[in-house]
Design goal:
The protein is α+β, with helices and mostly antiparallel strands. It has twelve helices and 25 strands.
Length: about 600
């Protein structure tokens, strides 16, 4: 029995310590504070965990620690410091400098009105001193939905602004509502298709997604959906003058496009558990106390129970033991935590070192789906005929990546043009990279999402999505249509549902990483993998492609980013890392053109 831990080199451990102790000077440079004397305590905690958390397998996953976070990157482009909470970001000197730029040289570019305010939510600082400050906009103290942006500066000088197509106006609405908050709640409750179990107070906001800034009420509704086992959590935006529904924002993001719903997919693997009186529980103290629980096939998590065991052996490789699915999920979350930490320097979904909860056996026994709820992962059991429980490694990585997106760019999902597809593609991309990072012989890395959820899948050619040719399902898109994806058709199960429009981003990533080459096990020709006939595209490798996508996500994407804006953002990320005359930059441009994003 062995402890499953990530092995970090001395250099990486040192870099993480630096990130934890950096303070920012008013001049824009970074000043390193003395490191607190916490290393012995951390070592003791790790040693204790090693002593009490025995594991099942002989071949634990060990994530590799690169010498720098972006392979072959330009010196100075890698991360030096990052905020670990919105509160820390808002109080930082970098945020103060960014607000000063928004009030002066950047005011016209962002269409700043006199009563606009800006609150920092995230700060990232590169080693060369470049500051990336993600801002949420307010107007007369009210949140502006769709007004988010990122300020990029160095040495106090503005480099650029990343923003969506919203807020292209200096106009602002009056902030006196004409309908009451109670009426707004009634309208939101009526819009929810199911049984409402909870509702937040109606809060005034300025709504600016695809429309002139409009005074609106936001009401968050929780409930049981009608004829849909997914957790119900939807934000409704209602015109504060008329009560008209402006938009519903579904906060639950699923892994599969459709479905009714010792490990099951990876063989015997190493897990980290925690000792309790009389045995062990599936809580990982080495990764922020992330916990895996049994939802007991209920459509909700309030009745979930912990997985406890006396011998630290979890499951029996079949569904006859409920802990088998839990072992897959627990391992997948750990592998994803390790991937983001070791490859991108991100400590957990929210970059605060904390783990999250995973709920297996969620919903009815035939639920063929998995979801990110905004704070936790939930996994259905599959139908037992075609699908096994949805706890495959790349699905776990996919769901946690939704969390990373929610903590950074907050890419919109339904009813927001291209950003839903980019959101889903981001999760597919990182789920795939997590799978490759593990290198498990039972589930080797590939560009298929969820191939292991199929009970019968000779050659692993069936999958929830084929990243290189997602349109093989007869519904998805691998080439960007002229004019883009229409916002009104990007709702759930719409023509441009995010699970269908994600094919453009997925193919781009495949071409960037691998080039126009036939994927193993498939007979597609190079010409079938591109949209413009450019079959000579050469890939730059997964490591560089992943570094470019992560940098674009965390520094340049905003909530309403479109595919053309994603092209610009990834080109900027490639410039930051490798230079604008590099082969990597040229490959990014060429791969986007090959999916008709120009």
């Amino acid at each position: 029995m062995q402890l499953k831990t990530a092995v970090l080199s001395t250099a990486i451990v040192g870099a993480i310590a630096v990130l934890a102790t950096v303070s920012l000077s008013s001049s824009g440079s970074t000043t390193l504070a003395a490191a607190p004397a916490t290393a012995p305590a951390a070592a003791a905690t790790t040693a204790h965990a090693a002593a009490v958390a025995a594991t099942r397998v002989a071949t634990p996953h060990v994530a590799q620690a690169p010498s720098q976070l972006a392979v072959g990157a330009r010196p100075g482009s890698d991360l030096l410091a990052a905020s670990t909470s919105p509160e820390q970001a808002a109080a930082s000197p970098a945020a103060q400098r960014a607000r000063g730029l928004l009030e002066t040289v950047a005011a016209d570019e962002v269409h700043r009105a006199k009563a606009d305010g800006f609150v920092a939510r995230d700060v990232m600082i590169d080693r060369d001193g470049t500051e990336h400050v993600r801002m949420e906009r307010t107007y007369r103290g009210l949140p502006v939905v769709g007004g988010d942006l990122v300020v990029h500066s160095r040495n106090g000088e503005l480099k650029s602004i990343s923003q969506g197509d919203n807020m292209r106006s200096f106009g602002r609405p009056a902030i006196e509502p004409k309908i009451s908050a109670e009426q707004a709640k009634v309208e939101a409750g009526a819009a929810f298709d199911g049984t409402v179990t909870a509702m937040t107070p109606a809060a005034l906001v300025i709504f600016a997604r695809g429309t002139e800034p409009t005074l609106a009420y936001q009401v968050d509704v929780t409930g049981d959906r009608r004829n849909d086992p997914a957790p119900g959590l939807i934000s409704y935006y209602l015109d504060a003058a008329t009560g008209k529904l402006l938009q519903e924002d579904d906060r639950v993001h699923s892994a599969a496009a459709n479905g009714t719903g010792k490990t099951l997919t990876l063989g015997n693997v190493g897990l980290v558990s925690n000792s309790i009186s009389g045995g062990y529980t599936l809580t990982d103290p080495t990764r922020g106390n992330g916990q895996t629980l049994d939802a007991r096939n209920q459509s909700g998590t309030s009745g979930a129970v912990a997985f406890n065991d006396s011998d630290n052996v979890w499951g029996n490789n079949t569904t006859s033991d409920r802990a088998s699915a839990a072992a897959d999920a627990h391992y997948g979350v750990a592998a994803t935590f390790d991937y983001f930490k070791n490859v991108h320097g991100r400590s957990g979904i929210f970059n605060n070192g904390q783990g999250v909860k995973s709920y297996v056996h969620y919903g009815p026994t035939n639920l063929v789906n998995a979801y990110w709820t905004g704070s936790a992962m939930v996994y259905g059991d599959g139908d037992g005929v075609t699908y096994r429980p949805l706890v495959a490694l790349d699905v776990a990585g996919h769901e946690m990546a939704h969390g990373v997106t929610g903590a950074t760019a907050r890419l919109g999902y339904y009813n927001i043009k291209d950003s839903g597809g980019l959101n889903e593609a981001t999760s597919d991309i990182f789920g795939t990279l997590v799978e490759f990072s593990v290198g498990n012989a039972n589930d080797p890395g590939d560009y298929l999402l969820g191939e292991e959820v199929y009970i019968n899948n000779p050659g692993d050619t069936k999958a929830l999505r084929l990243m290189f040719k997602q349109d093989a399902d007869g519904r998805s898109f691998s080439c960007y249509p002229v004019g883009g994806f229409t916002a009104s058709q990007t709702g759930q199960n719409g023509k441009y549902d995010p699970h269908l429009s994600s094919g453009v981003g997925n193919r781009f990533f495949y071409l960037l990483a691998e080039g126009a080459v036939k994927p193993a096990g498939f007979n597609y020709t190079p010409s079938q993998l591109v949209c413009n006939g450019d079959t000579a595209i050469a890939g730059i490798g997964r490591a560089k492609a992943g570094a470019i996508w992560y940098r674009a996500l965390t520094r340049y994407f905003v909530s309403s980013t479109t595919y053309p804006q994603a092209r610009t953002a990834t080109l900027q990320a490639a410039t930051d890392l490798y230079g604008n005359t590099s082969n990597e930059y040229k490959a990014v441009a060429r791969a986007w053109s090959a999916v008709s994003v120009n």
